[in-house]
Amino acid sequence: MKGVRLIVTLLGLLALWQAVVWLTGAPPYLLPGPVETLRVLIARAGFIAGHAGVTLAEILIGLALGTILGIASAVVIALFRPARRWLLPILVTSQAIPVFAIAPLLVLWLGYGMASKIGMATLIIYFPVASSFLDGLRRTDPRWIDLAQTMTGGPKKRPLAVLRHVRLPAALPALASGLRVAAAVAPIGAVVGEWVGSGAGLGYLMLQANARVQIDLMFAALITLAALAVALYFTVDLVLRKAIPWQPDTLPQSTS
Amino acid sequence: MTQTTPAGATGTPTDVVIDRLLLAFDGAPLFDDFSAVFPVGQTSCLLGPSGVGKSTLLRAMAGLAAPQGGRVSGGDGAPLAGRVAYMDQSDLLLPWLSARENVVLGARLRGEAPDRAAADRLLARVGLAGHENKRPAALSGGMRQRVALARTLMEDRPVVLMDEPFSAVDALTRFRLQALACEVLADRTVVLVTHDPQEALRVGHRLFVLTGSPARWEESPVPRAQIPRAPTDGDFPARYDDLMARLASGDTAAPA
After folding, report:
1. Interchain contact, A149 vs B64, CB within 8 Å
2. What is the architecture of the domain spanning A32-246?
3. pTM of the model
4. ipTM of the shown complex
């Protein structure tokens, strides 16, 4: 059923696109239709796939790094009270500075290659992962903590064991929602990096095609990027569902 | 005192002694110069109007709330930390663990090797043989509370503190769980907070009625029969009348 809905939505969007082309009578060098775009996509499949591979690698490495850093920050902040005062402002600042504004700096420092794009993706992924996981860690049901403390022999006893066996697993559904957001925004980081300065990747390809008025190629790259982003999101979503089979809404209800 | 003795070494039966306790909640003293002894190997039921501080008292006994004055200890004068098992009105099962893994949670938190065979025996004893691998979401409310009871027994502590343990299940399940609790908790020092006079008369060796602010206690007589008592047996109805009269006289709130 879900698959049918997805196909219907896709076909609807394609029809809308074709309708706009017909209604406006825009020339192909301004707005190519879906058929022309598909033709370019097939004709230059290998070329586009090469650039898509670069962008995908940047996204995936950025996702991995951002997730690891985000999880580590959240755990450190949740465990050590003084760390909260030092790290929380950094966490917020990482999001307050627009990635677009520091993209040129990252390219300057890390070079035109993949490193600056990975840095960008990492930066944009870090915040949703860290903040949602931290939220989850701080919101452990206090009655679970109480129970754990009667088992360990008192408050503040074996905090690492309580973290590992109670607080971390309890925060996984929150981490999952952060990861879903991260998967959705990760392509932005990589592509913005490529726009600012690069020699490969879908963002580079779009910029080049645009400059040479190869709008059909630009559209083909755009479609590829969108497909990549959607596929990434649904893959992450599927993996998270399999990895966290208990549902947050089956947690014991709060009683007073 | 910092005692981190494992459960086995602290298994000697003990009274629960409350000595001149001072315990305030939001600035208002719930208990002031409050003393009581809950005798070894018996089930003491705490009754009283809502807000009198029954649960707070239980938390102080569990070492979860630090009193402003006085002390809670065992009959030997040593603190109770590490010698109590705690059971709440909600099962507090961790939704990501199977019934068996929930039962051995205490051992895992203490870094001991979990005895899963013993956990299975206890699950069988509370009537859950064959359900060891199910997650809490797959169990009914009554079954979940049985798992919680098995977890409490698995801790094998001389003192068991229960906060309205059966209030969230239906009447028939409650009736059966009360009988089961009497059977499996025999010879332990049990302190049970309840709102239900009938439950107290059914399972209690001693009934403590808390009234006033700061709270004082007085005892209400129990029926002559052995626990678990049937509500229609002998002097049960007469003792029920006694207890209701005592609860009503202590209830200074507006008439219901």
Report:
1. yes
2. Orthogonal Bundle (1.10)
3. 0.81
4. 0.86
